[in-house]
Structures are given as C-alpha cells and as structure tokens.
Design goal:
The strands form 2 sheets. Strands 3-2-1-4-5-6-7 form a 7-stranded parallel beta sheet, sandwiched between helices. It has 17 helices and 13 strands. The radius of gyration is 21 Å and the shape is globular. Helices cover about 50% and strands about 15% of the residues. By secondary structure, the protein is of the alpha/beta class. The chain folds into 2 domains: about 200 residues, Rossmann fold; about 180 residues, Rossmann fold (3-Layer(aba) Sandwich), CATH 3.40.50.2000.
Length: about 400
C-alpha cells in the first residue's frame, strides 16, 4: 500500500489564497490519474481575517476549509510574526509533514519558513526570486529571508531565476512560470459568468478606473498617503470615474488620520472586492492605479493599463512588456502617467498577451510546481523507507 505524501501549505493573505487554488487542482488531477495519494493540509494563519479578504476567496476558488486556522489577526510586524511562529510550530509538530509549501512574501511566509526550518522540515517557496531592491519594504525582507532559508525555490520568471543566481541560490531553483497567470487564465471565464459588480455599481466598461492602496510604505506615511489621495481626487474630477475597494488597513488609516478628507463624488469607495469581482473590475477598467504587486500582474494578464504608485516594482516584466508605468506618489507624476495611458490606449484596453506569455509561462505553472515538489520529496521518501 502506497503511503500518502504529507504536504502542508501555509497561507494567510489574499494573494496566497489565489496561488494555492491552482496547485490544489493540480495535485487532485495528478492523484486522479494514478499518482501517489497526497495528504494536503492547509494552515491559515489568519493574517487576513476579514471575511472580504479571506472567506470569499475560499468560497470562490473552491479551496477546502483550512485544517488549522491559527487566528493570528492584525498587529505590528514583530507581534504578528511572533504569534505566527509559535502557532505554526505547533501545527507542524502535530502533523510532521514531508514538506512545507509557502507562497509569496507576507509575514505568514516568513513565519512559516522559519518555523519549518527550525524543525528541520524541508520548505518549498512558491514565487521565489522576486526582488524590488528596496529593503524598506517589509515584503522585500520576507522574500530574501524565505529564499535563503528554503530548500526548493520555485521561480516564476527568468528574471527571478537570474536574481537567485546572483545570490548563489541557483542549485535550489526551478523555473516554473507564474501560478497567478494560471489563476487568471482559469478564473476570468468564471468572473465573466458570475460577477455582477459592474451592474451593481452601474459601471460602463472602459469608462472608469480602479484604485487599490494597501502597502505599508504608502498607508503608514501620512505625507505619502496625502499626496496619493490628492492625486486621486484630481483624476476623478478631470479624467475618469474611479472605483476604490478599500483594504481594511487603508480604511483604518483614513478613519483615524484623515477624518476630514472626503473623496471626490466620482471617486467611489467600496468594501474589499472578492477575486472574481476584482477580475471583472480590472478586466473592464480603463486603467488601474495600484501599489499591489499581484494586481500589477493581473492587470497585465487582462490587458488593463496599469500605473504603479511606488518607486520600484518586483514585477519588472510588466514594465518591459509595456503594460505598466511606475509613477511613485507625486501628483504630477501620477497625472502624467494617466495622460500617457490616455494617449497610448485611448480605448482603455491593450493586448499584452504575447509579452505575458513570454515572461510568465504557458499557464501550467501549477503542474511544474507539483512536479518539482514531488521530485524533491522522492529521494527523501526512498531514504525514509530504507531505514524502516
């Protein structure tokens, strides 16, 4: 009788829920076709605990309920990571998996990597090799630590592979393609069938823009956020209606530090949007203004012109492919980026599909990740059986 492979995926935030779904499907298909049984345990740290940032993603993406929900919640980076370390360690000691899979660059990723490594459990890092080269970003610290501690580095792009090579990590790295590309290709059809957000908000395709702001570098710095808010109001007044799904962190900051600020009538604040609604919103938008890494890619995959409200991006492929403009947070630069897109894509839609496929793969990253994880485990499984 074949012994089941025990694999633990540790997630905690919106981008990780999106990434785990294609991998779960890939493992299910593999087992159904006669592959070895896989006991896939999901540990949810609770980093994103708001229903609009967590539950809706599990529901829409058909992710099974987490085996362990650690309920960590929000807090400072140190406090949040400290709680995760202790609780993840308990979950891993309870299950003792063959391998732990982490995703992206959140505090959940950092805590999962450290917890597993200290217990001498192998770690595979999905989305390894990304670098913004800005150490002020907590996500950058998380990425670097995760890559240098993990045993298997699953890189989404050739650029990511090159970054890992420069840091002496090439022997651990595998080029897989981007699993979020898999997710967009699979779910955009579901979004077209199921999402009604354009009707609910009375939006006309290509007649509005989408805004998201959540990075600590923007929300925790009042001067930066004030500039962004000023630019958004001006764009809403002069260029296009804007829809602004509010991340809980951003909503809290606006309430506590900007009580006198009011959005322009054409800048519409709405609650966090689910994944299918987000794909529909961005897929039909005239442009996206964001500080999110994942949404830069989703816009690129969907042919939506993007303006990134940061000074750098870990997704340089979106710049090289002509789908993204780095604007920073100065109002003049943001207005100039809006004008540039109005000139380059007056219909509010572009085709970046060739550049997306060249940089991010063929939409089968999940299968390559699955194969790399199983190949990594196989020698260890043989050695374990030899000792019995």
């Amino acid at each position: 009788m074949t012994t089941a492979i025990k694999l633990v995926s540790i997630v905690g935030a919106r981008p990780q829920f999106i990434k785990i779904a294609p991998l779960l499907r890939s493992f299910e298909h593999f087992t159904r076709r006669g592959g070895p049984p896989i006991d896939h345990i999901i540990v949810h740290t609770g980093q994103h605990y708001d229903a609009g940032m967590s539950d809706v993603f599990f529901d829409e993406l058909a992710i099974p309920p987490a085996t362990f929900n650690l309920g960590v919640g929000s807090g400072s980076h140190g406090s949040q990571t400290d709680q995760m370390l202790a609780r993840i360690e308990g979950a891993l000691l309870n299950g003792r998996p063959d391998i732990v899979v982490t995703y992206g660059d959140t505090n959940s990723t950092l805590a999962a990597t450290l917890s597993a490594a200290k217990l001498h459990i192998p770690v595979a890092h999905v989305e390894a090799g990304l670098r913004s080269f800005n150490r002020r970003m907590p996500e950058e610290i998380n990425r670097v630590v995760a890559d240098h501690v993990s045993d298997l580095l699953l890189a989404p792009t050739p650029t990511a592979i090159a970054n890992l090579e420069k840091e002496g990590l090439a022997e651990r790295a595998v080029l897989t393609g981007d699993i979020m590309y898999d997710a967009v290709l699979f779910n955009r059809r579901l979004a077209a069938q199921r999402s009604s957000i354009l009707d609910r908000l009375a939006l006309e395709p290509r007649r509005y823009g989408v805004v998201t702001i959540h990075r600590a570098e923007n929300t925790d710095d009042e001067k930066r956020l004030r500039k962004v808010l000023s630019a958004l109001n001006e764009i809403a007044a002069t260029a296009a209606r804007l829809v602004f799904p509010l991340h809980p962190r951003t909503a809290k900051v606006l309430q506590s530090r900007f009580p006198a600020w009011s959005p322009h009538p054409r800048l519409q604040l709405i609650p966090p949007a689910g994944y299918l609604d987000t794909l529909s919103l961005v897929g039909h938008a005239r442009m996206l203004l964001t500080d999110s890494g994942g949404l830069q890619k989703e816009a690129f995959f969907l042919g939506c012109p993007c303006i990134t409200l940061r000074e750098e991006t870990e997704w340089v492929e979106t710049l090289q492919g002509g789908g993204n403009i780095l604007a920073g947070i100065e109002p003049e630069a943001i207005r100039a980026a809006v004008s540039a897109w109005e000139a380059r894509a007056p219909a509010g839609q572009a085709d970046f599909s060739a550049a997306a496929a060249a940089a991010f793969g063929d939409g089968h990253a999940a299968d390559r990740i699955r194969d790399a994880v199983l190949a990594f485990i196989a020698p260890r499984e043989r050695a374990s059986h030899a000792l019995l």
